[in-house]
Every structure is written in structure tokens, then in C-alpha cells.
Hints:
The structure holds two protein chains of two kinds. By secondary structure, chain A is an alpha+beta fold. Chain A has five helices and five strands; from the N terminus they run H-H-H-E-E-H-E-E-H-E. Chain B is of the alpha+beta class.
Amino acid sequence: xxxxxxxxxxxxxxxxxxxxxxxxxxxxxxxxxxxxxxxxxxxxxxxxxxxxxxxxxxxxxxxxxxxxxxxxxxxxxxxxxxxxxxxxxxxxxxxxxxxxxxxxxxxxxxxxxxxxxxxxxxxxxxxxxxxxxxxxxxxxxxxxxxxxxxx
Amino acid sequence: xxxxxxxxxxxxxxxxxxxxxxxxxxxxxxxxxxxxxxxxxxxxxxxxxxxxxxxxxxxxxxxxxxxxxxxxxxxxxxxxxxxxxxxxxxxxxxxxxxxxxxxxxxxxxxxxxxxxxxxxxxxxxxxxxxxxxxxxxxxxxxxxxxxxxxx
Lengths: 151, 151
């Protein structure tokens, strides 16, 4: 488990991932070397899995973001595998999630505009295997997106 | 129409996998000099394509073993109720992201919890207590894959 210093470091890095070590150390009342050592340990233990850049797709011209929620035909034992394999080949799919609940799989897709989305929907999405039911949620606005853990 | 070329996309792909790489290391992989790579990264930042970084933590090893997506339908509508709801929901630490959507639901929330009984507490005490909440649908996340996207 994490101790208080680990929590402090991770909390700070969650809010500002590019913060210099010295700043993190000062905030958590310790030395830079200690912060570096802790981060190494957290990485080795698999707690800290990495750091990735956040891309704003609208700035690249992808203005439409749609959440597609699928219920699959589970009478076919390979439904999940087939579906996921096919979905991974669609470049506009930026996230794939599987669920326990009324929804089996959710695909997050982006498109340049509604016209582009319509094409993607007809030519790629509807061709995915074993779809029993499908509903779409169009994203209007992102209100909160930090995805920070309450540590 | 795009001002970005294949090299810019290669930089985006690489940084969305690992944002800790230096411009020099990244340049060696994609065959550019350190200053040329640095200039392209700056250009992507200035254009608002690269909007920041995010550290990736293993939620499970920190003790958050449950992630649930909630579809929330508001019972009462109107501009005031949307703002009240948004202000209250973003203040809940367990709520990682909030999206305003069009479709079956009004909002999509990503919620983390320590276990199912902790989730029950968050749902009853926090979510159901939000102003204007009507119907709520919960789907428990089983797996998640992030894809590089159309770059």
C-alpha cells in the first residue's frame, strides 16, 4: 500500500504531471532525491504505469465524439473476441471498454463531422460482428476530465 | 486540409504512448534532429493539439478496484438545473470524468470506488443526492483499451 509521502507525490503529479522534482519535493516537504527514489519504487511496483500525452482531437479536425454502446449476441461464445478484434481495426475508435451490466461493450469513436460519422457508422460500425443492440450517445461537452484518482 | 504531416503524427503517436521521452530520444526514433523534433512538439502544443500530459496509475494497486460508468438522466430540466448538477457532480472526488451527452442520458460519469460496498456508498450518498437526478444506469468496467486513434 501507499504511505503518506507516496500519496502526496502522486496527488501532486496527477494535478501537474510536468512539475519538476524539486517542486514536488517542496510541496511534500522532502528532498528531490527522495521523490525520485519513491517514483522509481512506484514504477517497479507497477503503481505508476507511465505518462502519456493528451491529444485534443478537435484541434486535429475531429469535431464529433460519439459513445457507442453495444449489447452483443451472447449465444455465440466467440461474440466478444470477434467483436473486439474487428473493433481494434477501426482507426477512429480511440477507446474500447467492456462492461458488466446492460451494456457489453462501449466504443469511443471520433469523426471529422456528422457526415464523416455517418459514413463511419454505415461502413464500419454496422459491419461489426454479433451486434444485438446498439445505441449512440453524442458527446456535447466535457465537464470534467482529469481522471484523477481520489488518493 | 491538414497542416500536419506523417512526422507530426509519428510524434503524437510516440508521445501518447510515453510522454517522458526527450526531444532528442524521440528524434532518433523517427529520424529527426533534436532541434527539429523540439520545434514540431512546440508547434503541436501551440496549435492546441498537444494539451498536456497525464500520469497513468494502476487504480487497482492503489486500492480502487471498481470503476463504474453511470448514465444519468435528469428529472427536471432547464438551464439552472444543468448548472447546479454540473457544479455538484464535479466536486465529488470519486467522479473522475463527467460528460454532457445527447441520447438516452444527459450525463455520463466515470466513478471509482474501493469495492462494491464503497461504490454503493458513493451512489447512495453522493450521486443520488445530486440536484435533479432522475434515472441512473450503472455498468461496471471490466476491461479498457486505449487506442492510438486515426493518426
